[in-house]
């Protein structure tokens, strides 16, 4: 199984929000920590906000925070939103399937079982779980977060 980088960074954004809770996290902070473009993170934060996982605050002092407790955000649910259907093989999607073996193929059935097992593990995982080693995570993130530059007005 391979998830897209979009899903990975959606989960990382939620993880960072859990680590910094109840403080706001800035899009720029996520972009710096993960060396990503700001527009990419903005798109992710927007989708997570629309889906009810993040509360977004606009403006100069804005950012985002978890919209619900980290214990209530299931990783599997986030993956389903960001990935859509996990069509591991062509025959999973009836609209695109061209395989003549549908319905009798053992491989297809086992791939479906494997996908279900993969999602079952993610359904048993919350954002609180992936942020539970807060000290270690914050220690690793700290050098990546650059202090906000103060502008000198002359």
Description:
Strands 1-2 form a two-stranded antiparallel ribbon. It is mostly helical. Mean pLDDT is 89; it is low at 149-154. A hairpin with a 5-residue loop joins strand 1 and strand 2 (63-66). The radius of gyration is 19 Å and the shape is elongated. It has a domain at 5-84 and 126-144: Orthogonal Bundle (Arc Repressor Mutant, subunit A). The chain contains seven helices and two strands; from the N terminus they run αααββαααα.
Number of strands: 2
CATH superfamily of the domain at 5-84 and 126-144: Winged helix-like DNA-binding domain superfamily/Winged helix DNA-binding domain
Tell me the overall shape.
elongated
> If strands are numbered along the chain, what order do they take across the biggest sheet?
1-2
Head-to-tail CA distance between termini: 55 Å
**Measured on Cα atoms, how large is the radius of gyration?**
19 Å
Q: Low-confidence segments, ≥5 residues, pLDDT <50?
A: 149-154
What is the H/E order?
A: HHHEEHHHH
Oligomer: single chain
At the fold tier of CATH, the topology name of the domain at 5-84 and 126-144 is Arc Repressor Mutant, subunit A
Relative helix content: 40-55%
